[in-house]
Specification:
The protein is α/β, with parallel strands linked by helices. The protein is 34% helix and 24% strand. The protein contains 11 helices and 13 strands.
Length: 328
């Protein structure tokens, strides 16, 4: 397994794209095969493409990924917001964990968007010693996406690199894409998101002080305020794993505005099973395994407590079964 040399995303301004590539140059005599993309989620479709890159790189080329800390669509269309599935740091780590030899994570800027396709490819060859590029069928680079596949094949013949196009991975008759993962999460279908990602969807945040309503009801919760511009599953109650201080716990987690109490701030509230330690100001990571139910309004506290007991029992059963299948 490779260790990230510099997992921190690098911001670009002006002509620094050349310098960023030069900083990531292979060792003397080394050559690379490259793929370029956002890779948000590093889902099974991404890993399908990476696997083909690894096959083509063996035994002498360095498999290299150029990716972005932000979404290019937000730069091309500033009014658009694309909610992220993972942080740039997580993305870099997942790419290295998958077997990538070099990850170059950059901020996509207007300067980069306006880079001519001829200059873009020349930089890849000059700085990274690119001998091959692996792409999806709708890939294009350079200003106005002028560097399409037809262009790349012509340019490769001139500069000495080959082009390999990989068909998207299809699961259940549909291509696996980051948009599909986002849609699954927006629907509360965390099981479907796990199927596409190849792992449970996860988010994290710092545990903050809340109104302590859960504690008063006998279900103390760790409260996290959702991070803006990141995907949060639909409101409801979920079976989750909660990791804090390196220890993974079973948890029942609620997302929503607590309508029974007439509140409006959206919170993530995780009740860690068989756990009562003070974890305020600690980082807590949640992995979503299954949705137990949607958000509901109850007639009174007693009805809410009865349902919360059911939620805890259901979460425990589902997570223990999930563990059993993982360890089978």
């Amino acid at each position: 397994m490779s260790t990230p040399e510099n997992p921190a995303p690098r911001a670009l301004d002006g002509g620094s794209f050349r310098q960023a590539l030069a900083d990531a140059a292979p060792p003397p005599g080394g050559e690379t095969v490259i793929t370029i993309g956002v890779f948000d989620g590093v889902h099974r479709g991404h890993r399908h493409l990476l696997q083909r890159m690894f096959e083509l790189a063996a035994p002498s080329l360095i498999p290299t990924v150029i990716t972005f800390s932000n979404h290019p669509a937000e730069v091309v269309n500033p009014d658009r917001t694309v909610n992220k599935i993972i942080t740039p740091e997580e993305k870099v780590q997942l790419l290295y964990d998958a077997g990538v030899g070099r990850v170059i994570c950059l901020e996509f800027t207007n300067e980069l968007a306006n880079l001519d396709a001829n200059e873009f490819t020349a930089l890849l060859v000059d700085c990274l010693k690119m001998r091959g590029i692996v792409t999806g069928p709708d890939f294009a680079l350079g200003r106005n996406r002028s560097g399409n596949l037809e262009y790349l094949h012509r340019r490769g013949a001139s500069l000495g690199f080959w082009v390999e196009t990989v068909a998207p991975l299809e699961l259940e008759g549909e291509a696996v894409r980051s948009r599909r993962v986002r849609n699954s999460l927006a629907d509360g279908n965390v099981d479907g998101a796990e199927y596409l990602l190849g792992r449970p969807y996860a988010t994290d945040g710092v545990v903050v002080h809340g109104a302590k309503m859960g504690r008063q009801l006998g279900f103390p919760t760790a409260n996290i305020i959702p991070t803006q511009n990141f995907v949060i599953p639909a409101d409801g109650v979920y079976a989750t794993y909660a990791t804090v201080n390196g220890v993974r716990h079973l948890a029942a987690t609620s997302i929503g505005v607590r309508p029974t109490f007439g509140l409006s701030q959206r919170l993530i509230e995780a009740h860690l099973l068989d756990f009562s330690d003070d974890i305020y100001d600690e980082n807590l990571r949640l992995e979503f395994v299954s949705r137990l139910r949607g958000q509901e309004t109850f007639d009174g506290i007693d009805a809410l407590i009865t349902q919360m007991n059911r939620d805890v029992d259901n979460a425990r059963r589902i997570l223990e079964e999930h563990d059993r299948l993982d360890n089978a």
